[in-house]
């Protein structure tokens, strides 16, 4: 039996449909059900639906052997897990954005509004810019508009939200996509099962570039 | 899956095992100067240390680790070897935890002249240590020489590559390799470092075919020799050659160990060769050791059970009878709890209610 943690929402559903095609179908699963655990009658696979940012926690603590999680979460929390495959789905970019009129004033620390505090610290340390972080949990784009920050560091998918709020991208931090992660101890004791999921998924997403 | 042993049982079994192998018990002080940990903070599992000022105003720490204090206090004469074991509590946050905890830890350190036999003996001791916890274990063995030798071939992005090795991340490495024009030979060696070969001989073969320099070659030869000994003594099946498991390069320089027990979702034992720590502290010789984090697997172990053989309930009239009965049962080896309270919160095998003369159980 392999336990798989999937992120609730569109991405999780897409990954599930892929997994069901490559031999990890769970008849009990229904998109509209409010249930959080689905197990296959043959006892080959169990799915947990969890908040996207919690997938890594479930995997790290071994409740799930493998999980699907965005690279943004992995970079932010750096969980002690193996990252076995890039699923090439849920693609977007971690970017730094600012108001169209923004000019960097290097005489003061740069005020950065973000959900991704650790990622922001790492990024600006590599570019050698002193920063002040404003931790927000949502509507990050509002911060520079209201003047509480100079820039934001956030995920950009289409760029529509930025455009509508008069913001522009001033730098890319990294490319983001969904990744398959595995618990290190599970990898030791369920080696064949974990590798099989990873290899089959890699094969299935080969043409996704 | 629960591990069918009590923590105390494991500790006493391990102490006996280490004593039989001629290891001396080491008892460190609870307190050390904070500077010791501050200078070597990357050696610690957590950088958080509990500090306080002693009576002379010196900044002290409650030990978060045993190895550093042992190395700090032990002087080994040139050519000699000292072997120690300890079981102590250390004070640090648990892995990923947010509060300080008292964590019980058992470990072994060998300091001085280290030869292949000493390494093999210690590795077998690690297998026996894991076996004492559970027969279902896996020992990952790696070598700093292989990974450092590989990293030294990279002109830039060493930290990035090190992180990619640790997480077995081949897909992002391929992008990195393309962006930085990394040589094919390095790509092959990286692939070996993150791949899963199952069989140690296959892993060592693949490693041999991709070595890029003497450091890597020596590392593979040392692992091959060690694996040969482990196989000879019947531990071959429990070993996994796992180059992705490495320690901090400022302290570790040779073999690296990571032990896993089935049912525990994280690594339970770590260790390796740490000559560099000794040299950093201006000491001669070599050092190798390991620690088993018993405190971190507490919840997976059998609990101290409070089930008594007999629960005897009494009232004012029957209290002497209760004492007599309890005494007679205890004399033949049973555990007995007497209680005047009918609702006592005790698990029992047999209840004798003297107030009504009932036996239940």
Structural commentary:
The complex is a heterodimer of chains A (209) and B (361). Chain A is an alpha/beta fold and 209 residues long. Helices cover 31% and strands 31% of the residues of chain A. Chain A contains eight helices and eleven strands. In chain A, the strands form two sheets. Chain A has a six-stranded mixed β-sheet. In chain A, helix 4 (117-127) links the parallel strand 7 and strand 8 (131-135). The longest helix of chain A has 14 residues, at 191-204. Chain A starts with a strand and ends in a 5-residue tail after the last helix. The mean pLDDT of chain A is 92. With 361 residues, chain B is an alpha/beta fold. Chain B is 37% helix and 24% strand. The radius of gyration of chain B is 26 Å and the shape is elongated. In chain B, the strands form three sheets. In chain B, strands 1-5-6-11-10-9-7-8 form an eight-stranded mixed β-sheet. In chain B, strands 13-12-14-15 form a four-stranded mixed β-sheet, with helices on one face. In chain B, strands 2-4-3 form a three-stranded antiparallel β-sheet. At the A-B interface, strand 5 and helix 7 of A face loops of B.
What attributes does this structure have?
heterodimer; A: 209 residues; alpha/beta; six-stranded mixed sheet; five-stranded mixed sheet; 8 helices; 11 strands; B: 361 residues; eight-stranded mixed sheet; four-stranded mixed sheet; 15 strands; elongated
């Amino acid at each position: 039996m392999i336990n798989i943690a999937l992120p609730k929402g569109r991405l999780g559903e897409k990954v599930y449909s892929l997994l069901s095609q490559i031999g990890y179908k769970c008849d009990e699963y229904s998109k509209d059900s409010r249930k959080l655990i689905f197990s296959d009658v043959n006892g080959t696979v169990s799915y947990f639906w969890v908040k996207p940012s919690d997938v890594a926690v479930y995997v790290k603590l071994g409740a799930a052997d493998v999980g699907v999680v965005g690279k943004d979460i992995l970079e932010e929390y750096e969980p002690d897990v193996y990252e076995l495959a890039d699923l090439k789905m849920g693609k977007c970019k971690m970017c730094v954005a600012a108001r169209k009129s923004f000019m960097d004033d290097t005489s003061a620390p740069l005020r950065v509004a973000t959900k991704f505090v650790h990622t922001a610290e790492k990024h600006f340390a590599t570019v050698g810019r002193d920063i002040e972080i404003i931790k927000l949990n949502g509507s990050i784009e509002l911060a520079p508009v209201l003047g509480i920050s100079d820039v934001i560091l956030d995920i950009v998918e289409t760029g529509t939200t930025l455009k509508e709020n008069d913001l522009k991208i001033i730098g890319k931090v990294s490319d983001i996509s969904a990744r398959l992660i595995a618990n290190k101890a599970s990898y030791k004791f369920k080696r064949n099962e974990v590798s099989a999921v990873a290899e089959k998924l890699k094969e299935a997403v080969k043409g996704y570039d | 899956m629960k591990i069918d042993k009590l923590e105390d049982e494991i500790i006493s079994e391990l102490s006996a095992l280490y004593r039989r192998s001629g290891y001396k018990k080491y008892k460190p002080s609870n307190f050390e100067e904070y500077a010791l940990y501050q200078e070597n903070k990357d050696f610690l599992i957590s950088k958080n240390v509990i500090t306080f000022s002693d009576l002379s105003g010196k900044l002290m720490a409650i030990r978060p680790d045993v190895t550093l204090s042992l190395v700090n206090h032990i002087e080994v004469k040139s050519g000699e070897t000292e072997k120690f074991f300890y079981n102590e509590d250390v004070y640090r946050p648990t892995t990923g935890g947010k509060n300080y905890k008292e964590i019980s830890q058992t470990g072994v350190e060998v300091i001085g002249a280290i030869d292949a036999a000493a390494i093999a003996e210690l590795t077998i001791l690690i297998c026996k240590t894991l076996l004492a916890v559970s027969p279902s274990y896996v020992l990952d063995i790696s070598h700093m020489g292989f990974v450092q030798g590989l990293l030294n071939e990279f002109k830039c992005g060493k930290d990035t590559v090190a992180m990619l090795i640790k997480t077995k991340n081949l897909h992002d490495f391929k992008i990195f390799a393309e962006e930085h024009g990394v040589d094919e030979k390095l790509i092959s060696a990286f692939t070996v470092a993150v791949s899963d070969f199952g069989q140690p001989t296959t892993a060592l073969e693949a490693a041999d075919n991709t070595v890029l320099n003497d450091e890597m070659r020596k590392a593979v030869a040392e692992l091959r020799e060690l694996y040969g000994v482990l196989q000879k003594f019947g531990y071959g099946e429990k070993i996994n050659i796992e180059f992705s498991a490495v320690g901090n390069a400022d302290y570790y320089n040779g073999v690296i160990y990571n032990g896993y027990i089935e049912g525990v979702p994280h690594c339970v034992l770590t260790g390796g060769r740490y000559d560099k720590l000794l040299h950093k502290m201006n000491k001669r010789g070599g050092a190798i050791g390991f620690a088993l984090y018993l405190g971190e697997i507490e919840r997976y172990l059998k609990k101290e059970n409070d089930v008594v053989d007999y629960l005897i309930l009494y009232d004012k009239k029957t209290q002497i009878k209760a004492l007599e009965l309890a005494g007679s049962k205890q004399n033949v080896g049973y555990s007995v709890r007497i209680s005047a309270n009918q609702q006592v919160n005790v698990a029992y095998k047999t209840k004798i209610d003297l107030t009504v003369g009932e036996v239940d159980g």
